[in-house]
Amino acid sequence: MQRGRKRKTPEEVAKHGLPGYTKEQAAQHLAGEEIDRTPHAFGDFIDSELNELVGSEKVKRFFDKYITHTSGRWKGKQWQWLDWQVDLIDKLFGTIKENGLRQYKECLLEIAKKNGKTELAAGLGLYLLCIDGEGSPEIVIAAFDRHQASICFKVAAQMVVQRKRLSDSLKVLRGEKKIFYVTQNGMLQVVSSETASKHGLNLSGLIFDELHAQKTRDLFDILTEGSGAARMQPVFLYLTTAGWDRNSICYEVHQRALKVMIEPEAEPTFLSIIYSVPEELSWENEENWGMANPSLGRIFDLENLREEYLKAKENPAKENVFKRLRLNQWTSQETRWLSLSDWDICGVPLLTETFTKRQAYGGLDLSATTDITAFVLVFAPHNGDGTIDILPFFWMPEEDLKKKIDRDHLPYDVWIKRGLIQGIPGKTVDYDIVRAKILELRKQYGFTEISYDPWNATQMALDLEKEGLVMVSFKPTFQFFSPPMKEFLTKITTGKIRHGGNPVLRAMLDNMRVITDANENVRPDKSKSNSRIDGIVASIMAYDRLMRHPESEKFIYQPNNIFTVEIEQPVKPKKVEVQMPVMPQVFKSGIECLRCGQDTGKPDFCWHCGAKIFIEVQHAA
Q1: Dist. CA 547–CA 206, nearest whole Å
Q2: What is the rounded CA–CA span in Å between residue 547 and residue 608?
Q3: In this structure, are 147 and 205 located in the same domain?
Q4: Residue 395 and residue 498: Cα distance in Å, rounded?
Q5: Given the DSSP bridges, would you call strands 235-240 and 205-208 parallel, antiparallel or unpaired?
Q6: 564 - beta bridge partners?
Q7: Using N-to-C axis directions, what is the helix angle for 478-493 and 534-547, rounded to 10°?
Q8: Of 232, 247, 272, which residue sits at a domain end?
Q9: Does the pTM exceed 0.70?
Q10: Residue 371 located in a structural domain
Q11: Strand blocks (E) in 445-518
Q12: Which of 292, 345, 415, 549 would be 420's cystine partner, CB 3.0–4.6 Å?
């Protein structure tokens, strides 16, 4: 004992042990005996019974004899099998080829969280290290960061400590995150994307935890490409719940797994095990939840899922989290901005017969010439019901269409055939075609303002301004996006939008990811949204123009009508009668502003001084 420190009582020694001493040495101290400081001699892990077994029976017997649970009410108790775990072991280790070796090298286990996959993986890591039969076994537990990878390691280390037979052969170095099989020169270690050196490994086993969290494919490629080639029968186990990034390595492996489930001969060494609620089934039906949670009723109960479901139901931001983590459903974005069910309710037919009598505003998102260009018209409410109509138009180049379909996982070819997207021959979108269509729509609906993203659209804006349209720059910042996005969301959740069930718009909404700043301002995040979101962005920009003209509902566009104009206070009202042309070549309203004396430039307010003008329609005598 060090001088100046209080000597521990026997009860404290029995409960907490002594720093730097083994349990045996602490017991000697407690009994007043001389402490044996002989270094612990690690021996071989020998079990003649296990050596007589093969395949899955050997694995299951190893668990039965040496693996204990490490947490919860089962901590320290002998391993208890779940049906789905037995099924995995029987398939992965029990499918033997004619040469006596295992058929499967890779296995994807995709299952909802809290079903017991981590303890199973930790036990398998110890099995592969101790008795699988590989000389100098090398096992890696990998994850995106060291913390995640350490979760499975800590479980394995605790399993070693809880069984003397394992601790006699395995040396645990918690600080280095390694477990050594000393006499056989074997090792189980943690590797993550943060680890400096990951090359030169000769893996006999790989446990890749939470594959969906991998932001790049680098670590996965390093650990799997060519690794294990010198081993007789390596096992690479990929553990994950569903993700949202359709361009990730996890989704690539997920797609491989789906293909193998349909065509096993495509990759005979790849085993697919996926527990999920299919997308075509309702995520809100409790009867479907067990499909993604085979441990339901054993590890956790239904009430636990209900609590999380109710939170997701009340908050759309939590809906995708619930779907991914508890139902193992792939989503189109990490956090959902709004519920698709709310959007679908607004899929009633457009009131197209009223469009020529209603004020409209445009939103233009050109994007890159190789992707989708979107132009959307938002029509002001009709008959005072507060409901707006959204009329979208899309263009995209037809060259490399198959690659874009595979990349975005969207049926662009079908939408082009249906006329929902105009296919442009070649590699790029011809902006002359877009400009011509916008001018054609102006003649039809009489709109005068377009909000546009200035990126890559300077020339288009100048060309349309020459045609008499007012082009309003809309920058992709919180300041510009947050107000119209919040109001747009309210319109959707209250059923005050009609979009006609356009499937292109729906897919874009489903893909959109939203980011929030410290002041709860929001904006779309194109860089992290799956696939294209241009149509929704253009809709929000167009709606922003409508928000800025609340009097638009009073406006009725009718060629050759006489307008009675009144200037709002503080300007003294005065009536002016003018003849409006059908479509002036030069952008002039023909209405003189009584505040500044100039042509107002618009029929509803003065473009120069901002004076509002109330409009009443009177038919010409």
Answers
A1: 56
A2: 19
A3: yes
A4: 22
A5: parallel
A6: 577, 616
A7: 90
A8: 272
A9: no
A10: yes
A11: 449-452, 470-473, 497-498, 514-516
A12: 415
User: Strand 613-618 relative to strand 562-567: parallel, antiparallel, unpaired?
Assistant: antiparallel
User: 570 preceded by cis ω (within 30°)?
Assistant: yes
The pair of three-digit structure tokens given for residue 319, joined into one six-digit string:
């809906």
Does the pLDDT of residue 17 top 50, yes or no? yes
Helix (H, G, I), strand (E, B) or coil at 35: coil
Q: Cα–Cα distance between 321 and 326 in angstroms, integer?
A: 8
pLDDT score for 22: 59
Give dist(CA 105, CA 420) in Å, integer.
45
Long-range pairs for 350-355 at CB < 8 Å and ≥24 separation? 350/389, 350/390, 350/391, 350/498, 350/499, 350/500, 351/382, 351/389, 351/498, 354/379, 354/382, 355/379, 355/389, 355/391, 355/444, 355/445
Handedness of CA 160, 166, 167, 170 (dihedral sign): negative
Question: What tokens does 500 get?
Answer: 């006609």
Query: What is the pLDDT, as a whole number, of residue 315?
Result: 76
Report d(CA 94, CA 126) in Å as an integer: 18
Q: Do 155 and 255 sit in the same domain of this protein?
A: yes
Sign of the C-alpha dihedral computed for residues 528, 529, 535 and 537 taken in this order: negative
**Residue 239's pLDDT is what?**
95
State the Cα angle at 599 between 596 and 605, rounded to 5°: 75
Print the domain residue range for 294: 276-331
Q: Is the pLDDT of residue 274 over 60?
A: yes
Give the chain's domain count. 4
Asked whether 437 and 377 are in contact (CB, 8 A), the reply is no
Q: Do both 222 and 89 map to the same domain?
A: yes
Distance CA 187, CA 182 (A): 8
Mean pLDDT value across residues 339-351 = 89
CA distance 393 to 402: 21
Do strands 613-618 and 576-579 pair parallel, antiparallel, or not at all (unpaired)?
unpaired
Burial of 156 (0-12, 13-18, 19+ CB in 10 A): buried
Q: Are residues 156 and 252 in the same domain?
A: yes
* Pair (519, 372) in one structural domain: yes
% pLDDT > 90, the chain: 50
Per-residue pLDDT, averaged over 481-486, amounts to 91
Residues 231 and 123 in one domain: yes
Residue 426 lies in a domain: yes
3-state SS class at 1: coil
388: nearest Cα among 360, 424, 422 = 360
Q: Phi then psi for 129, rounded to 5 degrees?
A: -75, -40
Q: How confident is the model at residue 571, as a pLDDT?
A: 42
Model confidence pLDDT, tens digit, residues 199-256 = 668 899 999 999 998 888 889 988 988 777 788 899 999 999 998 887 789 999 999 9
Q: 3-state class of 345 per DSSP? A: helix
**How far apart are the C-alpha atoms of 146 and 278, rounded to whole Å?**
32
Assess contact for 270 and 257: CB atoms under 8 A: yes
- Dihedral sign, CA of 4, 6, 7, 13? negative
Q: Are 538 and 364 in contact (CB under 8 A)?
A: yes
What H or E segment, with its residue span, contains residue 549? none
What's the mean pLDDT in 524-550? Answer: 84
